[in-house]
Amino acid sequence: MADMMWAGRFTKQIDERVNDFNSSIKFDSRMYRSDIEGSIAHATMLGECGIIDKGESEKIVEGLKGILADIESGRLEFDPAAEDIHMFNESELTKRLGATGKRLHTARSRNDQVALDIRLHLRDDVAEIKAMTAELIDTIVKLAEKNTETVMPGYTHMQRAQPITFAHHLLAYAQMLLRDMGRLNDAAERMNVNPLGSCALAGTTYPIDRFRTTELLGFAEPMGNSLDGVSDRDFCIELASAISILMMHLSRFSEEIILWCSWEFKFIELDDAYATGSSIMPQKKNPDVTELIRGKTGRVYGDLNTLLTMMKGIPLAYNKDMQEDKEAIFDAVDTVKLCLRTFIPMLATMKVLPENMRAAAAKGFINATDCADYLVKKGMPFRDAYKATGTLVHICIEKGLTLETLPIEEYKAVCDTFDSDVYDAISLDTCVMQRGSFGGPAPEAVKVQIEGIKEKLNVLR
Questions:
Q1: CA–CA gap between residue 461 and residue 329 (Å, rounded)
Q2: CATH of the domain at 414
Q3: pLDDT tens column, 309-339
Q4: What sign has the CA pseudo-torsion 102, 106, 110, 116?
Q5: pLDDT of 2 strictly over 80
Q6: Domain range holding 341?
Q7: Sorting pLDDT into bands at 50, 70 and 90, what band is 13?
Q8: 394, 304 Cβ separation under 8 angstroms
Q9: Cβ within 8 Å of residue 208, ≥6 positions away
Q10: Do the beta carbons of residue 253 and residue 73 sit within 8 Å?
Q11: Could you tell me which of 390, 388, 392, 362 has the C-alpha nearest to residue 376?
């Protein structure tokens, strides 16, 4: 086994089992591009500041670019015996440039190096997650625009409550996802600070220019405290939290889709490409995508808890515990991308069944509130109107009728304020059309909401 870069202090080779236990190359190799980009910026700064010879700085930069090209072309494979991606890249550079390659690590520690790499890598991941979330919002909006007059029952306690439109229901999720994009933006903003130059924990005696590497790497500013620079993982926790909330929203939406495509609801039908069958029951069409999203949401919550638990008892500055950050945050990132990647086309291709939605809305007395409001508009206190309408619902249940089919004589027997115009007031279309308050389900109100969502989305992208 080759000597480790840090082996000078030791008189023995590290035990192979310890090396395997200690190694992170299996999961941090994905940061190879970020590691090389950070090293290029560091080498450039070292040369510009005269800390190393400018010519050697340029050779290091070219050598790093060559390593990057070879990795991406497949000519260079990661060495599983390497301790981590940082040591792999530096070792490869030294093989190619000899002593010049060894100058790269001047005024730098793996502590600030890994803190830099993970920020750079996650910054790109956040941009990708945001783009996918925006695509999902676009998909929801397009579906909503086709269903502004598709009447369906709204629910509370999973009981039919009041009539709404399918567009109105869908746009509730668009609003949730807009908040998710806001949280992702917030996480990205706080992530976008430069820890490079913090070194091991106490900065360096070399005359480095941290503002130059900040500029080269596109950060907003350098971190203001070197101890914080190497020991902060708030940005991982914050991103995992934002992803967890996003997954919660996907899970809630998935649960509704599971209900809607069941025979008991049959409000929608999933495209065959996004459903599976049964090994024994030939009639089955299972919503496996949505069920998996529900399950994977718990997995992401576990990633968040891993990060919180890992960090809660660690003193300043860097501790090896923090190596566990990457597997957790990378898993959360990969999981949400996978879920979004399958959820978006599933939603875009599903078939809406408006007749079934309307039939469900016609049952369950979901126009009872409108019946009470009818009396209130004629001068009756709401609580009295509420009681009168409740009495009418009880009569309907006993006689197997609905409020629409109950004779006017029955209405008048309960309250003589009722007149034949009550039937117009309690029709489903009237109930929906008159709910035009801002944010409500009336088609015109929904159209206003759609435009508002589009405007917010353009700002958040």
A1: 22
A2: 1.10.40.30
A3: 999 999 999 999 999 999 999 999 999 999 9
A4: negative
A5: no
A6: 111-152+165-206+224-358
A7: low
A8: no
A9: 45, 46, 49, 51, 107, 197
A10: no
A11: 388
What is the tally of structural domains in the chain?
A: 3
Q: Are residues 297 and 395 in the same domain?
A: no
The verdict on whether 109 is a catalytic residue reads no
Q: Is-catalytic flag, 34?
A: no
Confidence (pTM): 0.91
Model confidence at 130: pLDDT above 80 = yes
- Tell me phi and psi for residue 153, to 5 degrees: -80, 135
Strand-pair category, 151-156 with 159-165 = antiparallel
Model confidence at 417, pLDDT cuts 50, 70, 90, reads very high
For residue 28, the number of C-alpha atoms closer than 13 Å in the C-beta half-sphere is 29
Do the Cβ atoms of 418 and 412 come closer than 8 Å? Answer: yes
Q: What pLDDT is attached to residue 285?
A: 87
Residue 454 three-state SS: helix
Helices and strands (H and E) in the chain: how many: 20, 6
Supply 219's token pair.
């950060």
Place of tokens 């190694």: 23
pLDDT for 3 equals 53
> Is 4 in a helix, a strand, or coil?
coil
- Residues 108/110/111/115 CA torsion (nearest 10 deg): 100
Same domain, 41 and 77: yes
- More confident of the two residues 23 and 101: 101
Residue type, 231: S
**Chain-centroid distance, C-alpha 431:** 35
Beta-carbon contacts of 417 under 8 Å, excluding residues fewer than 6 positions away, are 375, 378, 379, 380
Do both 287 and 395 map to the same domain? Answer: no
Which position among 24, 86, 121, 157 bears the catalytic label?
Answer: 157
Mean pLDDT of the chain: 94
Same domain, 271 and 342: yes
Tokens of residue 105, six digits: 């690590």
Residue 7 pLDDT exceeds 60 = no
Asked if residue 452 and residue 401 are part of one domain, the reply reads yes
CB burial of residue 175 (10 Å; 0-12, 13-18, 19+):
middle
Which bin fits 218, alpha (ψ -120 to 50), beta or left (φ > 0)?
left
